[in-house]
């Protein structure tokens, strides 16, 4: 046998050594893969646990979190999260305010929805012993209070918290600011007690059952197509333009100063020219033509082009008929 032929002679010991070395190498690779896979699984499990049980971080206040369980920081007091953008884009709707006053010792989040509570419109945070206000189209709404110790998100609410549904549906009325008082059932206790009352009901005790004045007055349409009438707001003389499309009587800033209206709550208004900022106060007396009324809300709009608009919160208390170019206003 030649030397070249000996190179190919089978050696059992050498063959077994190669197999053992290959087996050890394969086992090492498999072990590494198993540990890597186990590490990934443990990391994902830990993150899932954090998302379920821990909040914090600067995250968005809404429903667009993974699986709806990613917790978020509790928004500031009065922060309004729009869950359905269409609620603020209705050009055909009359908007009114709704105010929440809290006497609670812990923050809550109020979710505003349709009466059936299957479509959520807005969510607003209300902190202890503070107030918040929203503006909504006139109509009926379902309201749900989310309460607890540790906030997660709108879908989950508070971790181990409670949900309180307000029944029946809450009415938002044209020309008035509704209000809801949140207070503990027992002083210092966390149980909720809700008192709901519209501003119209609050003023009913002070407000006359009928408009002062009798007879009627006829208003003729001017060249601009408007009906106007002279009047006064707390003694300050104005010329009202009748606006049946306005939910609340409005005056400009100068008239508001002359009328001495000092307490005025900021509010956003939806007008034909878009959204504008103003405030709402109460006039002790409002006079237009032959008629007068007391304790009526007026909006003060700095950018109002005319001196005053006579809105439906005043016009709804009289009878209006229109014949051609003449509008007849009479006592109901």
What's the N-to-C terminus distance? Answer: 132 Å
Q: Which fold does the CATH topology of the largest domain refer to?
A: Immunoglobulin-like
Number of domains: 3
Order of helices and strands: HHEEEEEEEEEEEHEEEEHEEEEHEE
- State Rg: 34 Å
Question: Taking all residues together, what is the mean pLDDT?
Answer: 77
Q: Work out the number of β strands.
A: 21
Global outline: elongated
Number of helices: 5
How would you describe this structure to a colleague?
- The chain is α+β, with helices and mostly antiparallel strands and 332 residues long.
- The chain folds into three domains: 3-53; 66-204, Domain of unknown function DUF5300 (Immunoglobulin-like, Sandwich); 216-331, Cathepsin D, subunit A, domain 1, CATH 2.40.70.
- The protein is built from five helices and 21 strands.
- It has helices at 3-6, 12-53, 199-204, 253-259, 312-315, and strands spanning 80-82, 95-102, 108-113, 120-126, 131-137, 139-147, 150-153, 157-159, 162-172, 178-184, 192-198, 216-220, 228-233, 236-242, 249-251, 265-271, 274-288, 291-300, 308-310, 318-323, 326-331.
- The strands form five sheets. It has a six-stranded mixed β-barrel with strand order 13-14-19-15-18-17. The protein has a five-stranded antiparallel beta sheet with strand order 1-4-3-6-9, with no helix packed on it.
- The longest helix is centred in the N-terminal third of the chain and has 42 residues, at 12-53.
- It is elongated, with a radius of gyration of 34 Å.
- The protein starts with a helix and ends with a strand.
